[in-house]
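Q&A FORM
Asked by: J.P.
Topic: structure of Ribosomal RNA-processing protein 42

PROVIDED:
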Amino acid sequence: MSLVSLNEAEKVYIIHGVEENFRCDGRSRQDYRPLELEMDIVSNANGSARLRLANSDILVCVKVEIDTPLPEAPKDGKIEYFVDCSANATPAFEGRGGEHLAAELSRFLCLAHGPVFNLSKLCIVPGQSCWKLFVDVLILECGGNLFDAVSLAAKAALCNTSLPNIVGTYEDGQNIDLQISDDPFDTKPLEASDLPVLVSLCKIGNSYVADPTIEEEICGAGCIVVSVTPKGNVTAVLKKGAGSFMPDTLNEIIMSGSHIGILLNKALNETLIQDMSSNVCKQQYGFLK
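REPLIED BY: S.T.
REPLY: Here is the structure written out as tokens.
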């Protein structure tokens, strides 16, 4: 994924630092790098968020439209995830270099959110019409730990999403014509606070670290990504890399990921509540500060 290269001395330095619980940037094994979050920054989207985790920069937009429910789920809505790796994020994404990572991120986001996201709340008329959400993720810059950054930005954007209100219907036989409010402020928020976030734990030597940098990912023997809800429930687990994990180590990593996920969800939810409850007109920043 990255063109960063390390010599053997640099790798040994990173591994020994992790063993002593002191990483190159001064963090301990369980610490995250600073996070910055901006909400509602894309005016023509129903919800948006931009998250920066150190050098990883993620933009997520959510658009909604009316669609027909699936025959096997007539009372459920739909949601689709699409991840795009910008060629400017890292030279490794040039051409079709980021397609595999984008597909893996899209699949795992769908797998992680699936058991928690209540699609029935997106239903308008059972069997005839529902809301369909398009969650578009753009990776602007790659600084390591993309799974965690993308999941945090996607949850923030979904919590920022509002659905237009249906003000009336017109029935013509069995066909129903929906009338959507013309008022852009006549909306209702999407309930997404229970969605999980992803926690990546990278095995380096005999220890494992949270929020790995690109250099630490190079030194890692493998990585476990855990999807954790605000209550600490694990909805999905993904293993990356060629390394192996003993059963006891794997259980320990999943339990540690669950604990970290609770703290991450709590911090994100507090930030989202503060953003929604604030009546002060905040200055909006673009991508240049």
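FOLLOW-UP: The helical segments are 8-19, 99-113, 146-159, 214-219, 247-277.
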